[in-house]
């Protein structure tokens, strides 16, 4: 087959071409029995010849041209030299001479096939080549660069999202009022929160027994002269947690919602003297009291006033020789006369802690804790309790 021949009639133009780009490079004319689609041989050959002519014109223009292009404008100096012989080399250099003119030159020498490109750009050209100072700020600018003295007010509301932030309960409304990004507000909020917590730890303290007795209100002196504190748990609603485990731990049947629960103790004068860490709404009052470390603060002879939700701490209080005072439990469907009087007496003084909780929850951040704020709920409740202690006392002996 090496010496096989194909008739010229089977090629376009009746002659075989050795150029692979030519339509006559392979046989294309066959009998009709092969069901080959007909083609416009003349058009194919014309396109091929036209392409050859274009390539020939480009080559002639490249070999016969020697061009120098000069442009003027405003920009540092850049020089690039390309030498085309047996090898190609590239050189780039920057030399800022402070000139005010921009020059670009491209030179081609026919004799030795050298190509040279040169550009001169001033350093002051729009500060393009001046490396800016950068600071790693993670997300958003540093607090030292944020100007919070400017209050834009109503004119800062530019879109619907900002209006929702302003009219909602999220602290991102500050971003609208002071015209800064909400992520910056969030970082500022957390930094200030930790700063306040660290500097107000002593605002919630456990006073000694002598101080409590000396400041005992008249309402306690007659019936509960040894009252050290009044305790109760309060629940704060949260958004639905992300995981099933968290939902089980935080669901409160009493509130029929997801909550966090804390134990609060006040001394007879109405000052918050103990605040536990946050627990899930499923935790019982007795469990929180035993787990929070509150019982370790009591001394022998101390009277602790509570409601009927703390029966599980009675044994622990007896071990420390303290006294748990709770209203009588209903037996046989009715109270005796003495039990009614005792219930009234306990309720008349224990009601003071119920007056503390509404004051505590006047801070709307405790209306419903969002998921992003949940990791900081202990700090938030602490600051709210500190602000409550700074208000006027709930008991006025005068």
Protein model, in words:
Strands 5, 6, 7, 8, 9, 10 and 11 form a seven-stranded mixed β-sheet that branches. The protein has helices at residues 41-64, 160-167, 173-177, 182-199, 209-214, 218-221, 244-250, 285-291, 314-319, 337-360, 377-389; strands spanning 77-83, 92-94, 103-109, 114-120, 227-237, 251-252, 257-266, 272-275, 279-280, 303-305, 323-325. Strand 10 (303-305), helix 9 (314-319) and strand 11 form a beta-alpha-beta unit. The protein has 398 residues and is α+β, with helices and mostly antiparallel strands. It has eleven helices and eleven strands.
Topology:
Blueprint: H1 41-64, E1 77-83, E2 92-94, E3 103-109, E4 114-120, H2 160-167, H3 173-177, H4 182-199, H5 209-214, H6 218-221, E5 227-237, H7 244-250, E6 251-252, E7 257-266, E8 272-275, E9 279-280, H8 285-291, E10 303-305, H9 314-319, E11 323-325, H10 337-360, H11 377-389
Parallel strand pairs: 5-10, 10-11
Antiparallel strand pairs: 1-2, 1-4, 3-4, 5-7, 6-7, 7-8, 7-9
């Amino acid at each position: 087959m090496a010496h096989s021949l194909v008739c010229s009639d089977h090629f376009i133009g009746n002659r075989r071409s050795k150029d692979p780009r030519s339509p006559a490079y392979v046989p294309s004319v066959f009998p009709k029995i092969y069901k080959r689609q007909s083609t416009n041989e003349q058009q194919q050959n014309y396109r091929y010849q036209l392409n050859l002519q274009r390539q020939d014109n480009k080559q002639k223009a490249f070999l016969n041209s020697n061009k120098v292009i000069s442009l003027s404008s405003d920009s540092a100096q850049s020089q690039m030299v390309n030498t085309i012989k047996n090898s190609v080399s590239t050189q780039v250099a920057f030399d800022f001479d402070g000139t005010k003119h921009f020059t670009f030159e491209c030179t081609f020498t026919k004799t030795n096939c050298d190509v040279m490109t040169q550009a001169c750009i001033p350093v002051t050209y729009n500060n393009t080549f001046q490396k800016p100072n950068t600071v790693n700020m993670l997300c958003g600018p540093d607090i030292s660069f944020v100007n919070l003295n400017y209050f834009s007010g109503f004119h800062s509301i530019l879109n619907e999202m900002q209006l929702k932030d302003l009219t909602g309960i999220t602290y991102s409304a500050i971003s609208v009022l002071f015209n800064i990004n909400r992520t910056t507000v969030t970082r500022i909020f957390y930094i200030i929160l930790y700063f306040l917590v660290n500097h107000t730890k002593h605002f919630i303290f456990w006073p000694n027994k002598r101080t409590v007795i000396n400041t005992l209100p008249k309402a306690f002196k007659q019936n509960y002269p040894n009252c050290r504190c009044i305790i109760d748990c309060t629940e704060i609603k949260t958004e639905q947690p992300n995981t099933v485990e968290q939902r089980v731990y935080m669901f409160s049947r009493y509130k029929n919602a997801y909550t966090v629960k804390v134990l609060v103790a006040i001394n007879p004068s109405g000052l918050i003297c103990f605040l536990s860490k946050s627990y899930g709404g499923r935790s019982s009052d007795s469990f929180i009291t035993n787990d929070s470390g509150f019982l370790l603060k009591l001394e022998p002879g101390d009277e602790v006033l509570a409601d009927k939700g703390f029966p599980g701490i009675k044994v622990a209080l007896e071990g420390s020789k303290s006294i748990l005072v709770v209203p009588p439990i209903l037996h046989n469907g009715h109270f005796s006369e003495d039990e009614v009087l005792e219930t009234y007496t306990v309720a008349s003084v224990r009601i003071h802690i119920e007056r503390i909780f509404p004051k505590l929850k006047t801070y709307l951040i405790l209306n419903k804790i969002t998921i992003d704020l949940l990791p900081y709920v202990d700090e938030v409740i602490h600051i709210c309790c500190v602000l409550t202690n700074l208000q006027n006392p709930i008991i006025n002996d005068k």
